[in-house]
Amino acid sequence: MSAIQDLYRTCEVLLATAPPDAERVSGSRSFGIKLNTAAVDARDLVRTRLRSWSEFVKAEHGCAPSNPSVTGLVSFLRRHADWLCRHEAGVDAVGEMAETARAIRRIVDPTRVRRFSVGRCVTGDCQGSLVAAVQANAELLPGEVRCDVDPEHVWTSYQWRELDRQVSQRQQTGLPWLTPRQVADLCQTSMSNVYRLASEKSWRRRTNGRRVLYAKADVLASVS
Questions:
Q1: Which of 1, 22, 201, 216 could make an SS bond with 18 (beta carbons 3.0 to 4.6 A apart)?
Q2: Tens-place pLDDT, residues 171-217
Q3: Are residues 199 and 156 in the same domain?
Q4: Tens digits of per-residue pLDDT, 108-134?
Q5: Which structural domain range is residue 144 located in?
Q6: Do residues 75 and 121 both lie within one domain?
């Protein structure tokens, strides 16, 4: 949480720093206000996710933050971190905050690495996603592909053909269970709201370690 707050403040410094490829507004005589829109979007993402998880804690735990500022929300979530981590939504809360921090770091300290999603992890019942990274000016194919949940799920370049076959096969199969992240994408809602919907709609569920999965049929019935 502290890291996110520090990164949020760093983005404030970048707000008036336009990216190098900023374009002049058509018909104008100047570039106008140089605004780093990526930094603006990053700060909006921080506020949105902090508010979302704070509302979740309020609804589930019965207490509310006294200060709606980013600093206040961070302090509130830090105070209730133990409770949230014990909740079934804890894994996703931590994961989403880590994802938020990574997104901001890409703005604050951009690297010359291009990352892209390959698909769902193909190892057993793992619910992670496969992510490949390509270094700038390197070969088009990445040296390895890693799972964003289990660091031991790694495929090197010579395993690409077999991995591609497994990913394609799994995508065609269509698993009957969805992760909270998949439900959030499908319903176009926040991760914290997924758990509220699951409770209200009585979705069937199963667990994989600390991760909860919801019946795809129940989710689709709710959004249809």
A1: 22
A2: 555 567 888 888 888 888 888 889 888 888 889 888 877 778 888 88
A3: no
A4: 766 555 677 777 788 877 878 888 766
A5: 113-173
A6: no
If one counts the domains in the chain, the total is 3
141 with 52, same domain: the answer is: no
The answer to whether residue 29 is domain-embedded is no
Q: 162 and 198: one domain?
A: no
- Specify whether 15 is located in the same domain as 104: yes
pLDDT band of residue 15 (cuts 50, 70, 90) is low
- 144, containing H or E segment: strand 144-147
**Are residues 63 and 127 both part of a single domain?**
no
Structure tokens at 107: 């703005």
Sign (positive or negative) of CA dihedral 160, 165, 151, 39: positive
Cβ-based neighbour number of residue 195 at 10 Å: 22
